[in-house]
């Protein structure tokens, strides 16, 4: 059980749970900070979640009321699949956040971390009929590997979970139409990697489209074979890479600049 | 009607001269200026954010014209009334901007439900203000403003007090307005509401510009869906958990708490 004090001593929270849960908390808190560092936040909106190891399918969400910059391992809120807070928390969780994240955690047991953003580039591409185009090496990793989910209103209706899950299928990336981006990973590190590449793909696509449109030029599409070859290469290579390079590098930066995420 | 210039020990002098409620609003409004600067939405010494003084009908606070937003403090804000008279000079004795007075006295004078109004000249805001179609309800955030955003045509720098009538007519009961060929305006029943609307309106402008520049085909949600999403926002109200306001103030407290002085 999580301690109830406003600022529990890190050690007391840590001692109350398994080492695996604590490690998940540290990683997820780090993801909040990394997403903030990359300017992908939206005040108190959007959420990143991670499933706690164990048969209960509990998962961690941000304390609703704090900015990403203030999230720490201890203040993350643990919820069950019905949205009940497990243990105690000084903060509630966001209802729309719960709908989207619980949908993925319920349907995809191999997914450990889900990230959702409302960035300028992500929202903009989500508003385009064209969707994400395989026009850069970055975006080719999503070739035929990105899902789309239509806008239904602010996601406070739990019925939407069925359609979210159906639309996501077996993909790890989804564009929420007229809304934003969703990235899933078998680890926090993988979710970050997918989110990062998805964001950069959207931003570069918008620049390319704008410049081409303004000058009456056409976008250059590699052949389907090349796109497929690139995507499958990334897919095969990625599971070993997520944990070994990019993510530890992000953690090293945080450890230097804002080590309080671990508290 | 100007009060004599504040002399040494100005900080405590201003605080001592105003009610605790006014001081609290001053601190919040100064924070608003700092938060806008933090986001890069300021325009040198131009543009303004205002707040009504609690318990003093007709009196409101504006920025000391001549200071950057980063420099504004609770004590340096200028208290004026709806006739444009300085009721209480701020620390430093700066005047208020005439166009700022026109715009803010119009909004605060006409709207009893509004206590704070914010106006910016950001690049995305000005760009949207210069396009004839206005803000489109093409995504979740923009649906918050669906049929609830006003437009006011440009008449020249707003130093003519006659313009107030037309500003008020155009704003109507909305809390957001695009000042055509000029910039953005949001207002609300609290500082945090005006902030949340300003943040979202700014982001909506950026997204729309990106979508339009791409030359791609926008997916426009149906009018019924846009309206029902607006209603969801309206029902939820402005949550102190989603506006980030308390967190942003905590960040200011860490990086530069001088706004509170």
Protein model, in words:
The complex is a heterodimer of chains A (263) and B (261). The N terminus of chain A is likely disordered. Chain A is built from nine helices and seven strands, in the order ααβββαβααβαββααα. By secondary structure, chain A is an alpha+beta fold. Chain A is globular and about 60 Å long. Chain B is an alpha+beta fold. Helices cover 42% and strands 13% of the residues of chain B. In chain B, helix 4 crosses helix 7. The longest helix of chain B has 24 residues. The chains are: A alpha+beta (263), B alpha+beta (261). At the A-B interface, helix 4 and helix 7 of A face helix 7, helix 8 and helix 9 of B.
List keywords for this structure.
heterodimer; A: 263 residues; alpha+beta; L-fuculose-1-phosphate Aldolase; seven-stranded mixed beta sheet; 9 helices; disordered N terminus; B: 261 residues; eight-stranded mixed beta sheet; globular
CATH architecture of chain A: 3-Layer(aba) Sandwich
The description of the largest β-sheet of chain A is: 7 strands, mixed
Shape of chain A: globular
CATH class of chain B, please? Answer: Alpha Beta
In the CATH hierarchy, the third-tier topology of chain A is known as L-fuculose-1-phosphate Aldolase
CATH topology of chain B: L-fuculose-1-phosphate Aldolase
Q: Specify the structural class of chain A.
A: alpha+beta
The structural domain count of chain A equals: 1
Q: Considering DSSP H and I runs of 4 or more, what fraction of the residues of chain A is helical?
A: 40-55%
Average pLDDT across residues of chain A? 92
Q: H/E element string of chain B?
A: HHEEEEHEHHEHEEHHH
Number of DSSP helical runs of chain B: 9
């Amino acid at each position: 059980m999580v301690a109830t004090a406003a600022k529990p001593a890190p050690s007391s929270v840590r001692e109350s749970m398994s080492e695996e849960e604590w490690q998940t908390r540290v990683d997820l808190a780090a993801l909040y900070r990394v997403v903030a560092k990359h300017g992908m936040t939206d005040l108190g909106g959007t959420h990143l979640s991670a499933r706690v190891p164990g048969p209960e399918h509990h998962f961690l969400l941000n304390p609703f009321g704090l900015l990403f910059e203030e999230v720490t391992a201890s203040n993350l809120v643990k919820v069950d699949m019905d949205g009940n807070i497990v243990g105690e928390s000084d903060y509630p969780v966001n209802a729309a956040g719960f709908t989207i994240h619980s949908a993925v955690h319920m349907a995809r047991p191999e997914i450990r971390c889900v990230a959702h953003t409302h960035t300028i580039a992500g929202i903009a591409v989500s508003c385009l009929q064209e969707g994400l185009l395989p026009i850069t090496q970055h975006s080719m990793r999503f070739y035929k590997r990105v899902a789309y989910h239509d806008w239904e209103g602010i996601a406070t209706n739990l019925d939407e979970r069925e359609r979210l899950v159906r639309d996501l299928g077996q993909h790890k990336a989804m564009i929420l139409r007229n809304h934003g981006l969703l990235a899933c990973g078998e680890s926090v590190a993988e979710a970050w990697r997918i989110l990062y590449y998805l964001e950069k793909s959207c931003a570069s696509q918008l620049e390319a489209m704008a410049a081409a449109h303004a000058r009456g030029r056409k976008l250059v599409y590699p052949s389907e074979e090349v796109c497929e070859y690139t995507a499958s290469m990334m897919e095969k290579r990625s599971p070993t890479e997520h944990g070994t390079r990019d993510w530890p590098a992000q953690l090293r930066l945080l450890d230097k600049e804002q080590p309080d995420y671990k508290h | 009607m100007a009060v004599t210039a504040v002399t040494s020990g100005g900080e405590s002098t201003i605080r001592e001269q105003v009610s605790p409620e006014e001081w609290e609003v001053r601190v919040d409004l100064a924070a608003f200026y700092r938060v806008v600067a933090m986001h890069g939405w300021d325009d040198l010494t131009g543009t303004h954010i205002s707040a009504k003084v609690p318990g003093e009908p007709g009196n409101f606070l504006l920025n000391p014209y001549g200071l950057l937003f980063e420099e504004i403090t609770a004590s340096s804000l200028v208290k004026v009334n709806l006739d444009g008279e300085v009721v209480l000079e701020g620390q430093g004795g700066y005047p208020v901007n005439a166009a700022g007075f026109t715009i803010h006295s119009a909004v605060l004078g006409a709207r009893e439900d509004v206590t704070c109004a914010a106006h910016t000249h950001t690049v995305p805001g000005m760009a949207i203000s210069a396009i004839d179609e206005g803000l489109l309800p093409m995504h979740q955030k923009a649906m918050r403003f669906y049929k609830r955003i006003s437009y006011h045509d440009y008449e020249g720098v707003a130093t003519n007090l006659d313009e107030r009538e037309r500003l008020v007519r155009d704003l109507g009961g909305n809390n957001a307005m695009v000042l055509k060929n000029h910039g953005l305006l949001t207002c609300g029943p609290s500082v945090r509401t005006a902030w949340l609307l300003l943040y979202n309106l700014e982001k909506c402008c950026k997204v729309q510009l990106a979508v339009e520049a791409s030359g791609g085909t926008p997916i426009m949600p149906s009018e019924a869906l846009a309206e029902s999403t607006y209603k969801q926002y309206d029902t939820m109200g402005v949550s102190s958990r989603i506006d980030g306001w308390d967190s942003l103030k905590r960040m200011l407290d860490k990086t530069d708490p001088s706004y509170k002085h």
